[in-house]
Amino acid sequence: MKRALPLAMALLVLPLSACGGGSGDDGGKAATSKGPIKIWYANNPDEIAWAKKMVSSWNSAHPDEKVRAQEIPAGKSSEEVIGAAITAGNAPCLVFNTSPAAVSQFQKQGGLVPLDDFPGAAQHIQKRSGDAAEQYKSEDGKYYQLPWKSNPVMISYNKDVFEKAGLDADKPSLKTYKDFLATSEKLVDKGGVKAAVWPAPSSEFFQSWFDFYPLFAAESGGKQLVEDGKAQFTGPEGRAVADFWRSMYDKDLSQKEKYNGDAFADGKAAMTIAGPWAVKVYDKKVDYGVVPVPTSKGQSAAETRTFSDAKSVGLFSSCKNRGTAWDVLKFASSKEQDRKLLETTGQMPVREDLTGNYADFFEKNPKYKTYAQAAENTVEVPNVPKSIAAWQAFRDAYSRSVIFGKENPQTALKKAAAEVEKLAAQK
Amino acid sequence: MSSPAPGGTRPRSIGRSFGRNLLGLGFVSPYLAFVAVVFAYPFGFAVWMSFHDYFFAAPNAIVEYPFVGLENYAAVLSDPDVRQAFGNIAVFLVFNVPLTVGLSLVLASALNAKLPMRSFFRAAYYLPYITASVAMVGIWMWLFSSGGLVNKVLGQLAPEPSWLVNETLAMPLIAVFVAWKQLGFFIMLYLAALQNVPKELYESADTDGASTVRKFLSITVPGVRPATTLVVIVATITGANLFTEPYLLTGGGGPDGASASPVLLMYQRGIEQGNPDVAAAIGVLLVLFVLAVSLINRKLTERD
After folding, report:
1. Hey, what CATH class is B80-130+168-302 in?
2. Distance, CA of B162 to chain centre
3. Nearest by CB to A18, which of B46, B56, B141?
């Protein structure tokens, strides 16, 4: 059993390093300063491959501004590692795996540099990402993150299981909640699976991004969890989504117990809710198709909004050579590097008109095209203070009412809304 | 050692006494330094933090940590999740501590006897203690999931909902898991204590025709009483710090918070949500809780 000591160390010793004194705020000078920098990237093989090539390409052209790159150090999550590094004053200049949900917290810690400080930065972000960029602005109207890549969430379905259940695997009936429920019942009855779809039913704050939130984004036409300090999920759209999932759990079409592994890859679930990373993971294991998440009335793929599951790049205040850091960030999010990111990882750069910009790639890889179209329609988590606490409050209420059926979903979500609004009002 | 002066004891010379203490001080100072840096200072800092509006900030950030009195404690005590977590940990201790004491004493007594393959059994019981919790949790998930081995064996008798998503059974199951995992360590404590129980007592009891159970209850149990006090206190302290099992085995303290522990909430509030002041208040309350439970346990186990 893990003792409290490591936690106590994290909670209590980190401030010691914070109290250890920094070098004073030299942000003004650092903003234009050039020289070597350090960056972190995610630790999955495809992103490692992309990052290594990107860094090598930068370093060969900039011998005086070398980039030293490494995977994000191991931790329970990237966010806690980055948070600890901010406190200790040893965060790298750039982290190519910054969760938008954690940005407000990093900002409060004084860990992030507003990118607007760099000439042309806001224009670069807006030109690259178009209207989507607006969702990544902080409450003070500045960009503390560059929206980098997204993994628009869709429904992947196992064609073999559909056929076994006597269903049309090429045109699956999954558009409306009614269709989805009827199809799910047949899948569980005749398809030889334990669940039609098996989102993780556990209590972590981020799990709602892969069950409730994509469907809510679709049903509401793109509403975020909180807007202008008001919780959005107690309206008819939120209620419809909650009722839909309640039915799935109530009829045992989704399991209340966490699956120890990947239920879709292991053939225990007929469908999964995932982004384009799924292509590389499932391609050799499952013969599958992709459709948008369902809505109450049914929508076309082009009009269906979904959760972005995006990652941003943050530029951290401990960086001494911020001039170089911004140049590297601009280089890493250029059209050419975005192409390499797409080709290497299959994840979608947060760039406008992906299918037009990289038409040849999507022609060769049609499976990705569906995700690219969805990428134009993504909804981000709200960039509000206390974002993670708000998501946890939501998850607790959702878990109690929708998954375990211990309370009426409407009542539980109303209580959660009050708590979320209280948190959103805090700074 | 100096011999006493004729005609009575004489105070030792100051220099000699100081020299002896200095040597002792030299031996204990690494541990004292460790305790001061790793336990005492952080604990003091946690108490300070719990009375301030505190958050982790970058070294260069200019931030204020205003004194907020008991505000963090009020927030914690009025939080139903925290109250539930303390209730959960009480349930955990009620199952875990007696199970740990009972099983480890019985098994230690058995392993103390001349058994065939005694070394193998001693190692077998110790193995889970030194194996990573994450690996053990994986096996228990496989055993106790709804389609797992245990439910297959139980057939119609399998609980519904299954173990890990059953509000009533989740925490007792974790208590059993932790008792099993820690057993090796506590068996070792009891084995050490058993070496100090005089063999003559057992021989006399044999002469009187006492049964094995009678010998266990009348000689072994009282003979290892100081070890029992230690086992109870250590099991209480480690149990109250429960984190990994609800985090991994029951999906973050589920179902619906039924297995959430105070340390899990400290992690959520302090690390994930960036409220270390609130987490520190939970931590201080947990220390007081453990202290109170340990004192009660000590009174009970040391009573003749």
Report:
1. mainly alpha
2. 27
3. B56
Complex-level ipTM: 0.86
A319 and A358 together in one domain: yes
**Residue A55 domain boundaries:** 32-151+309-379
**A235 and A350 together in one domain:** no
State how far the Cα of B91 lies from the Cα of B98, in Å rounded to an integer: 12
Domain tally for chain A?
A: 2
Are A291 and A393 found together in one domain?
yes
Question: Are A110 and B146 a contacting pair at CB < 8 A?
Answer: no
Nearest to B253 among A9, A105, A203 (CB): A203
Residue A8 is assigned to a structural domain of this protein: no
Specify whether A288 is located in the same domain as A399.
Answer: yes
Instruction: With beta carbons under 8 A apart, name residues in chain A contacting B263.
Output: 4, 7
Place of tokens 């305790």: B35
Walk along chain A (427 residues) and give the pLDDT tens digit of each residue: 444 444 444 444 444 433 333 333 455 667 789 999 999 999 999 999 999 999 999 999 999 999 999 999 987 788 899 999 999 999 999 999 999 999 999 999 999 999 999 999 999 999 999 999 999 999 899 999 999 999 999 999 999 999 999 999 999 999 999 999 999 999 999 999 999 999 999 999 999 999 999 999 999 999 999 999 999 999 999 999 999 999 999 999 999 999 988 999 999 999 999 999 999 899 889 999 999 999 999 999 989 999 999 999 999 999 999 999 999 999 999 999 999 999 999 999 999 999 999 999 999 999 899 999 999 999 999 998 899 999 999 999 999 999 999 999 999 999 999 999 999 888 7
A202 Cβ under 8 Å from any chain B Cβ: yes
The DSSP bridge partners found for residue A269 are A195
Of B60, B243, B254, the CB nearest to A202: B254
The alpha carbon of A226 is separated from its chain's Cα centroid by a whole number of angstroms, namely 17
Mutation target among A19, A86, A257, A316 for the B interface, most CBs of B within 10 A: A257
- Is position A344 within any domain? yes
This prediction's pTM: 0.88
- Interface contact A18-B58, CB threshold 8 A: yes
Asked if residue A99 is part of any domain, the answer here is: yes
Report the alpha-carbon distance of residue A309 to residue B30 in Å, rounded.
Answer: 49
DSSP string, A62-75: -TTS-EEEEEPPPS
A162 and A99 co-located in one domain:
no
